[in-house]
Amino acid sequence: MSTLLNKKDFYNLDKNDIIELLQLDSDSMIDLVKKANEIRLKYRGDKVYFRGLIEYSNICKKNCLYCGIRSGNKNFIRYTIQDDEFFDAVKFAIRERYGSIVIQSGENTSPAFIDKITEYIREIKNISNNKLGITLSLGEQSFETYKKWYDAGAHRYLLRIEESHPELYKKLHPQDGNHDFAARYNCLLNLKNIGYQLGTGIMIGLPFQTIEHLAEDLIFMRDLDIDMCGMGPYIEHPDTPLYQYKDDLWPLKERFNLTLKMIAILRLMMPDINIAATTAMQAIDPMGREKALQAGANVLMPNITPKQYREEYLLYENKPCIDENPDDCISCLDARVQMVGYQVGYDDWGDSAHYFNRKKL
Ligand code: SAM
Ligand code: SF4
Q1: Residue 2 lies in a domain
Q2: Is residue 1 in a domain?
Q3: Atom of ligand 2 nearest to the CA of 162
Q4: Residue 297 is assigned to a structural domain of this protein
Q5: How many Cα atoms sit within 13 Å of 248 on the Cβ side?
Q6: Domains identified in the chain, total number
Q7: What is the pLDDT of residue 328?
């Protein structure tokens, strides 16, 4: 067992410590995961919080080199969910006693889009009697737009930095003036200043990425003092420029194990944050999300997007659950959570304890 795991406090792990933990072999990795689970139970209890994920639109003005719904990909149909379908999904979440929903979308900064989201946030608060928590994941927007949505009632925002190393960020995005590391970082600062619970994250196993980058990503998240994290393996998509590097990537199994280690180490470093078990984990291993829960994650985001749109929100190959309706998924989810030793936190926003601790509320 690594002697690092005997530490009393993991907040100050340095880059070399993190690299040592990321390189643990599969036997020692079990000790890391066990330790992370202990810390998770101590600081966040045994609850798993559901956020019903609505993939609102795949229209995107960006062209990230890894993403299947990038604006340059013309090989699929663009959609935006209609109002009645959107509210059917919201009502489903209320009925199933999910504590929260996440509205996610390709990036759109048009006034019509901004107004529509504002209207939706107000209406969700209204029809749920303020019972449903709202997380947004709608990309880079102006300070004013973030503020407008916050004032309307959204309280958490997820904006992955994707890769915290500016040089690597550059290699993963077109150099067209529309994909700028500093601008994205500034969005994170704005979100925090406005008062959102701040979530970020990265992809693991990207072309050109090294273990050193991953260690620095964890330090980046600690130093930004985030409240929530969503990180998952990078999975290649054939209609993207980065697909040409598919033979140089770490094998899927390794990307998966590295993601588990990243989750476990982050849980040790930041015991009171929320960490999501992401869908991309399930794309690699049918039990992927459950394994992430056992490594320190405490949030699940069941997809409640209407079935007819799911095939058009293909960020990567083999995305799971695209041929299921929301109801098909829900019955087994509770059992799956219990099977790995946790309880679903029904009717609970499941906010990040770290947010309240850092705000001294
Ligand atoms: N457009 C918004 C944004 O980029 O912040 C939100 C939606 S975007 C589809 C959500 C996340 O999908 C991104 O932050 C990215 O990390 C992830 N993603 C995109 N392409 C991916 C891929 N090929 N493999 C794994 N995750 C991917
Ligand atoms: Fe658009 Fe987000 Fe995909 Fe980038 S990751 S192309 S911003 S949907």
Answers
A1: no
A2: no
A3: 5
A4: yes
A5: 9
A6: 1
A7: 55
pLDDT reported for residue 333: 87
Instruction: For residue 265, give the CATH number of its domain.
Output: 3.20.20.70
Q: For 73-92, what is the mean pLDDT?
A: 96
CB 99 within 8 A of CB 144: no
Out of 54, 62, 67, 282, mutate this one to test ligand 1's pocket (max ligand atoms within 8 Å of CB): namely: 67
Separation of 315 CA from ligand 2 center, angstroms? 8
* Ligand 2 atom closest to 68 (CA): 3
Amino acid at 35: K
Q: pTM here?
A: 0.97
Q: Whole domain around residue 71: which residue ranges?
A: 8-360
Would you say residue 146 lies in a domain? Answer: yes
The pLDDT tens digits of the residues spanning 113-141 come to: 999 999 999 999 999 999 999 999 999 99
